[in-house]
Design a protein that fits this description.
Elements (H helix, E strand, L loop, with lengths): L38 H27 L18 H42 L1
Keywords: Membrane, Transmembrane, Transmembrane helix
Protein name: Preprotein translocase subunit SecG
Length: 126
């Protein structure tokens, strides 16, 4: 029994590293002024910080006005409970609305009468 094994020579892997050497003229897109900030940049940064401060101040003012809960409030004993007191408060508003509707209906009914009377006068005089 002869077993022949195909033995291959170990494959050596080589990593080729391309490192930029200093002073070769290629800065990778980083010019002479790379990393240096200008006074305009500082001014822009300060303007943004001031704007954020005003926005935070405004937001806190608005959040203080928001109620703790949006659930409907239950009336307390001191407030008008359901019953006679609540009905008394609503009655004058209902009466006023009813009176306003009656007056509007009366005015609407009077206009055709006035037109008819004016028409009769013009026909009788003509």
């Amino acid at each position: 029994m002869n077993v022949t094994l195909a033995v291959t020579a170990p494959v050596a892997t080589h990593a080729i590293v391309l490192a930029a050497q200093p002073g070769n003229g290629d800065n990778g897109g980083q010019g002479e002024d790379f990393g240096k900030s200008s006074p305009t940049g500082l001014l822009l940064l300060l303007v943004f910080l001031i704007a954020v401060a005003f926005l935070v101040r405004s937001m806190t003012k608005h959040l203080k006005r928001v109620p703790a809960s949006f659930d409907p409030e239950e009336p307390t004993d001191d407030e008008a409970p359901s019953g006679e007191q609540a009905d008394e408060g609503a009655a004058p508003a209902d009466e006023a609305e009813a009176e306003a509707k009656e007056k509007a209906a009366e005015k609407a009914a009077e206009k055709p009468k006035e037109k008819a009377e004016a028409k009769e006068k013009s026909e009788s005089s003509g």
